[in-house]
Design goal:
It contains six helices and three strands. The N and C termini lie far apart (69 Å). The chain has two domains: 67 residues, no CATH class; 54 residues, no CATH class. The protein has a three-stranded antiparallel beta sheet, with no helix packed on it. The longest helix is centred in the N-terminal third of the chain and has 24 residues. It is of the alpha+beta class and 140 residues long. The relative contact order is 0.09.
């Protein structure tokens, strides 16, 4: 009966997702019943409890600085640089190209060239203004 009071309208073509949402509803209602039992009936109503759980789940994982400043800029995760012994061993580092264009790890200009061993994009430009970030990146 409690599930039908505040049921979330949720349609899906996959049968198991409906069962999963039903289990979540049951768990949430059981948590509210335990909360009310521990406070001897002086707790929040079910709707307020559900809203509080919702707010806590949204805030989970956010730092305090983001909440205070309101700066919620999403940044792409950066690739980890290869460890120094692999980066400077001078064995098996070959140039290859990819179809898409990305940023050079050394000078941050756009390039489609990358190191096969390190899996890092690096420039290798000839012509009027030559630049060899591939060599500079692999030397100490």
């Amino acid at each position: 009966m409690l599930i039908s009071l505040y049921k979330i309208p949720f349609k899906t073509r996959r049968w198991y997702i409906g069962i999963f949402t039903q289990l979540l509803e049951i768990c949430l209602n059981n948590a509210w019943l335990m909360y009310r039992k521990n406070l001897e009936g002086k707790g929040k109503p079910l709707k307020g409890f559900r809203h509080e759980v919702y707010q806590c789940l949204i805030k989970r994982g956010r730092s305090q600085d983001v909440e205070k400043t309101g700066n919620s800029k999403i940044q792409k995760p950066r690739l980890a640089r290869p460890v120094s012994p692999i980066r400077y061993d001078n064995v098996g580092h070959f140039i290859s190209t990819k179809d898409d264009i990305g940023r050079c790890m050394h000078c941050h200009s756009k390039t489609s060239v990358y190191c096969i061993k390190c899996n890092v994009r690096l420039c290798f430009i000839t012509g009027k203004s030559p630049r060899n970030c591939f060599l500079n990146f692999h030397q100490k």
